[in-house]
Design brief:
The protein has 494 residues and is mainly alpha-helical. It contains 23 helices and seven strands. The chain is 51% helix and 5% strand. It is globular, with a radius of gyration of 23 Å. The chain binds flavin-adenine dinucleotide and iron/sulfur cluster.
Length: 494
């Protein structure tokens, strides 16, 4: 019997078409650009352009392969489904909201073959744990898949190279050249449409994103040759003149399913086998995809979207400062990274975690508010990945479910791992006075505010040892500076 195969905007994979047993002779592939959805959040212009251009290219590719494609512009997804007149099948959506809507509309799902573990595997794994940790999960998936394993032992006998992989860039570091993806006529037409949508944010100029599978494969091969050898060593390093470092910038392609996680891992593992990339880098990269990416999805799925929205373990209720939308601040680290993100829709992991996320954590911003900023500002943001990363990992609002301790750090960390503090109006070492670094003041203030909670006795106990060195006068100075910082924030003078 003929069926309709629904391809969502983040399911642009021929593997999925095969999984759904799509018959070129009788089935119809349905693709819908639901422009009304775009009006719900102030998304980054480049993200919308990326998704629509990648969808249109994928639709054209399917037609070239002989499939019948019913492609709708500016239409309601649910109305299109209702008018098909045949059973509708789809790969199970990653996001809960869309999953619920499609289920209610009668769409049936097949399991996404791109996850290494199933929901059932994960639920079973969680059932025997009170404190799940990425490291345990990652080792299990390494053992199951055999990646970088010698029998039941990790390659070279080492599971984790984190200690080696925390170097700042050397002096005079220069960015490596990025690949270029020239917009074709399909992309140019999308860019014109997106430019006319009023409520979006970010800069559309200089659009340079992989919009086809061939483009995404080119980025993967660029990464393996040019960046992977240095990926591990410098994965935590930040510099004002280099927003990418040696990171892969593969998340937009992975999250659109233009690439499979397995092929990215295979490419890195092959580089190790060929001797072109060291194990410390290859393991670090495999950990990101086989470990963190997979783990975050399953945690999101396991807890459920609504439950994530309710997490606020640190009772954080401050509004998000305007500077996140403008980059207008004297804090050089935030000014540089937010301006870069609004321009490109990207920041690497440590910038997201230890600069952009850290400031909101220290200030006590409502978790869903900072989550919504990340969702708006980044090209790779989708509920399933942005929610656990922001609410769980970055804002520690989930009571230790995602991470063993909050990623709270003072200006000293940012100074050690970057060159932002050179030339900043503030001094990373000072916690009080007019030149005190806001991160440093707010870091001590964060510890003081949570001094009588379990954080002090368990998860941040080492940080609290250092707080003992602060005198009553220091504590008063920290409280005064915090008040001053809040006023400066309100008047956009910080
Ligand atoms: P690389 O450093 O080259 O890593 C390789 C790949 O590993 C990435 O492409 C990504 O697919 C995967 N990966 C690594 N860490 C994670 C992680 N924690 N969760 C999921 N995948 C991971 N990632 C997103 O894809 N979308 C988001 O909206 C997103 N929001 C984040 C918000 C915060 C506050 C934090 C701390 C992290 C967030 N991440 C998000 C995870 C991570 O920062 C990005 O995946 C990564 O920076 C993407 O850049 P890259 O491709 O150059 O990554
Ligand atoms: Fe950021 Fe503080 Fe360093 Fe300035 S001194 S760049 S605010 S960490």
């Amino acid at each position: 019997m003929a069926k309709t195969v629904l391809v969502l905007g983040d399911q642009l994979s021929l593997d999925y078409i095969k999984t759904l047993e799509t018959d070129r002779n009788q089935d119809t592939i349905l693709m819908v650009e639901d422009w009304a959805l775009v009006k719900r959040k102030p998304y980054h212009r480049k993200k919308i352009a990326l998704v629509w251009s990648a969808m249109r290219h994928f639709g054209n590719r399917l037609r070239d392969l002989g499939y019948r494609v019913d492609y709708h512009l500016d239409a309601s997804l649910l109305e299109c489904i209702a008018s098909t007149g045949s059973p509708v099948v789809c790969i199970e959506p990653r996001e809960h909201g869309i999953r619920t809507c499609l289920k209610a509309a009668g769409v049936t799902f097949k399991t996404d073959p791109y996850w290494f573990m199933t929901q059932d595997d994960f639920t079973q794994w969680m059932s025997s744990r009170t404190q799940p940790r990425l490291e345990q999960y990652y080792r299990l998936v390494r053992q199951r898949t055999g990646y970088l394993m010698n029998g039941d032992k990790p390659a070279d006998g080492i599971w984790n190279f984190d200690k080696e992989n925390r170097k700042p860039f050397p002096k005079n570091h220069q960015p490596i050249l990025q690949p270029h993806f020239t917009p074709d006529s399909t992309t140019l037409s999308v860019l014109e449409t997106v430019a006319g949508i009023p409520n979006l944010i970010g800069d559309l100029s200089g659009f340079n994103e992989p919009v086809t599978r061939d483009d995404a494969l080119e980025r993967l091969s660029w990464f393996v040759i040019e960046a992977l050898p240095d990926f591990g060593r410098y994965e935590d390093a930040m510099a004002a003149n280099d927003m990418f470092g040696f990171h892969s910038i593969l998340s937009p392609s992975l999250n659109l399913s233009l690439l499979s996680p397995a092929e990215c891992i295979d490419a890195a593992v092959t580089a190790y086998a060929d001797g072109t990339a060291p194990l410390a880098s290859v393991e670090a990269f495999v950990r990101q995809i086989l470990g963190w990416r997979e783990y975050m999805f399953h945690l999101y799925d396991w807890l459920g979207s609504n439950a994530w929205d309710e997490q606020n373990a640190l009772d954080a209720n401050e509004p998000l400062p305007d500077l996140y939308w403008t980059g207008d601040t004297k804090m050089r680290c935030l000014r540089t990274t937010i301006t870069d993100t609004l321009r490109t829709g990207y920041a690497h992991h440590i910038i997201r975690l230890m600069v952009q996320g850290n400031f909101a954590l220290l200030l006590g911003v409502r978790p869903t508010e900072i989550r919504d900023w990340f969702w708006s500002a980044f090209l790779d943001a989708y509920d399933w990945v942005v929610t656990p990363n922001v609410i769980g990992m970055s804002q520690a609002a989930d009571n230790g479910l995602t991470a063993s301790k909050p990623y709270a750090a003072s200006g000293a960390y940012i100074n050690r791992m970057s060159d932002y503090c050179k030339g900043c109006a503030y001094s990373p070492k000072s916690f009080a006075g007019d030149d005190a670094c806001p991160f440093t003041t707010l870091y001590w203030d964060f510890l003081i505010r949570h001094e009588n909670t379990a954080l002090a006795s368990t998860r941040l106990s080492t940080n609290y040892l250092a707080l003992r060195g602060k005198s009553p006068a220091d504590r008063l100075a920290i409280a005064e500076r915090r008040q001053q910082l809040k006023q400066l924030l309100q008047t956009s003078q910080l």
